[in-house]
Amino acid sequence: MIRTILALTFAATMIAGAGAQPAKTAPAVAQPGKLSYAVAGSFAPFAFVRNGTLVGFDVEMGDELAKQLELQPNPLNIEFKGVIPALLGGRVDMINAAMFITEERAKQVEFVPYLRVGTEVVVTKTNPSKITGRDDSLCGKRIAVTLGGIQETYARADDARCKAAGKDSITVMTLPTAQDSLLTVRQGRADALFDSTPGAIKATTELPDVFMTVGTTFEAKTRLGYAVRKNDPQMKAAIEQALAAIVKSGRYREIMQKWALPATMSIFD
Questions:
Q1: Which residues contact 161 (CB under 8 A, 6 or more apart)?
Q2: How far apart are alpha carbons 74 and 78 in whole angstroms?
Q3: Fold category of 118-220 in CATH
Q4: What was the pLDDT predicted at 1?
Q5: What does each C-alpha distance from 73 to 45, 61, 125, 244, 249 come to in angstroms?
Q6: Residue 222 β-bridge partners
Q7: Is 122 within 8 Å of 185 (Cβ atoms)?
């Protein structure tokens, strides 16, 4: 376990000098003895409120990171648009909010990647069209997507593929939001939905008797990361070491399984 020392004392120096194992100096933290991190507690299964308590994959991983650093976890539920200002303002030590790593965000913060996301094929539990994933079972079907989103690009590429193979074309139905697309599928006006992995997990977690995913994750190119300040390399190194220990112990996989995250979301293959 990574030793956490917030201040070196004369006694500690004497012990180290006497031949004890040298301790690693931990990064400075916003609140002594605590790992304070921002979560956006409205994004199941990553972080959400259940019976007045924050729970979810990110929350449990935050507990494990704090444990590795010998600190107490201190999650702060902050609206997503406020998490970067909270970090840059020194209110929290890190962001732990299922944050997509983008070029624009990387200009403001440093990231430690911990998951990856792609796109899922979502259908109703009855799946009357017998869709099996992103394959030929989509040809001739109606696919709902968010207008202008990357999933629309994927659906139109699949339509072209079906046509090139001499199969029935796909009807690409563009809707304003993913929620509209889910409703369209639920009402039977579309056969399937292309949704991001987090969105699909949210739908199947909140309505497990209504929706399910079929096939495997595709186009898994986007990563989620813990964010730290650019001028805090010690914190970044500490989080990287703690995460590596959690992965090695098997707890990372256990927490993924508990919160029904598909194995394809792991970046530690």
A1: none
A2: 12
A3: D-Maltodextrin-Binding Protein; domain 2 (3.40.190)
A4: 52
A5: 19, 10, 38, 18, 19
A6: 117
A7: yes
Q: What is the pLDDT of residue 20?
A: 34
pLDDT of 202: 87
What is the predicted pLDDT for the residue at 15? Answer: 36
State the Cα–Cα distance between residues 72 and 14, nearest whole angstrom.
27
Supply the angle between the helices 233-249 and 251-258 in degrees, to the nearest 10: 80
Return the residue matching tokens 């969105």.
199
**Helices 57-68 and 233-249 meet at what angle, rounded to 10?**
110
Maximum distance among all Cα pairs of the chain, rounded to whole angstroms:
79
pLDDT of residue 225: 97
Residues of the chain with pLDDT under 70: 1-26
């996989």: which residue's tokens?
A: 253
| Distance separating the N- and C-terminal Cα atoms of the chain | 23
> Checking DSSP bridges between strand 142-146 and strand 72-77, what pairing results, if any?
unpaired
- What CATH fold (topology level) applies to the domain 10-116+224-265? D-Maltodextrin-Binding Protein; domain 2 (3.40.190)
For residue 246, give Cα distances in angstroms to 62, 145, 241, 252.
Answer: 11, 36, 9, 6
User: Domain limits of the chain?
Assistant: 10-116+224-265, 118-220
The Cα 47–Cα 177 span in angstroms is: 21
Domains 10-116+224-265 and 118-220 share a fold: yes
Give the E-state strand segments of 136-240 in sequence order. 142-146, 171-175, 192-196, 211-229
What was the pLDDT predicted at 13?
37
With 0.90 as the threshold, say if the pTM is over it: no
Exposure letters 135-174 (e unless 16+ CB within 10 A, then b)? eebbbebbbbbbeebbbbebbeebbebbeeeeeeebebbb
